Amino acid sequence: MKAAAFAARNRKEILRDPLNFAFGIGFPLVILFLLSAIQANIPISLFTIEKLAPGLAVFGLAFIALFSGTLIAKDRGSSFLMRLFASPLSAADFILGYTLPLLPMAIAQSAIGFGVAAFLGLPINANVLLALLVLIPAAVLFIAIGLLAGSLLTDKQVGGICGALLTNLTAWLSGTWFDLNLVGGMFKIVAYVLPFVHATEAAKAAVVGDYASILPHLWWVIGYAVAVLALAIIVFRQRMSSDAV
Amino acid sequence: MNAIETVDLTKQFGERIAVDKLNLSVKQGELLALLGVNGAGKTTVIKMLAGLSRPTSGDAFLLADSVITKPLAVKSKINLSPQETAVAPNLTVKENLETIACLYGSNRKEARNKTEAMVKSFGLSEIARDRAKTLSGGWQRRLSIAMALISDPQILFLDEPTLGLDVIARRELWGVIEKLKGRITMILTTHYLEEAEALSDRIAIMAKGRLKAVGTAAELMSGTKTEKFEAAFIALAAESEVGR
User: Fold this and answer.
1) The model's pTM
2) Chain B, nearest residue to A9 by Cα
3) A12 CB near a chain B CB, below 8 Å?
4) CA nearest to B11, candidates B1, B21, B3
5) How far does the CA of residue B80 sit from the closest CA of chain A (Å)?
6) Virtual torsion, Cα B93, B94, B99, B105, nearest 10 deg
7) Residue A114 belongs to what domain range?
8) What ipTM, to 2 d.p.?
9) Counted domains in chain A
């Protein structure tokens, strides 16, 4: 009940901020339309909707980290977290309260992206539902990044790290904007060490029905999600028991 | 049984001792004002008593429960209104109150009933559906205190509750605090000496992390052979400052 009440508060805080809608849903959709328009006017197949829609779904999820990080950092900055830390909420209540409301938001955000992509030619079938499931570990990863950033940084720093750096890293290193094979070298090696391209590849494989290719990529994302979430929980618990609230 | 009992309560940040072996008792229903210049250790004391900061040594017992060994039991009996206004900005006044009630264990129906009662007693009806971020500083502070009271705490910490408020808003809050006296044990920190004098049963004065004196305003004036409370405060708080 306590975690549910806290989660409800966090959901309302995020959904009532119009900037979150603008960035979380509006921005990826604008890029979807823009790249689709470019694709319609070039002779080579660079931004086909089957590749673009999963890539932009992952890109959109990066904003989830911004939402969660900003909320936590603002709570810390405004003394609201001090009030909450003085309440009988346990560490588990806090972590559940901050993460649970974001998961349905992330799924809804991806579903809206795929829904709009349908108007641009993406066939809507069971594979799209599978892609939504495949994107859940990526959603958990970005939520965890937000929890970690919000526990350590101010809301302005979270804006810089999650809003600018993370979204750009996700965009450039996910293979959405261009084929990573075209760049190759160290760039490609780094991209494949990080989870973003794996999240995109897994979702792409789900959309096109290449089921065998999903898990090899998904394990990377799951591994990162578990590791970052564990780190975020450790750091958050340390902040709870420290004097730095 | 005292509501609050501290035993050699100490907090050290590196080399700096923020609170030095504090021994203080507060009776149930009493309002104790904790005074001191900036850096005297008042907020650190509140944070330790509220379970937000672990003492370096010593202990504090709130209604017999230790802040070190039974922090969750302590937290269920207390609430606090932090120095800065602590409200959820995008939630309405009612939602803020209901959320806090639920965090302290009320179910939805109980939370709604408590909220209605709190809205009425704090005169929040006209702004009940407004989002907290749209309220003036005075209303936000009033809401912040209502949020601290909705859990029916036995002990309430008010950390500079009237800081930054205009005279009228401050007087209104004094009225709210006056009504709580006797029912709830309160520790109030403030820089406004007249506030401490007007509201508190006893006043504790801290300087450089140490408790310099505790008593009624009259006792403190008599002990320092001064005629005004401000002079008594300066005499007690400045003793330690001179050696800085």
Assistant:
1) 0.84
2) B99
3) yes
4) B21
5) 7
6) 130
7) 2-241
8) 0.85
9) 1
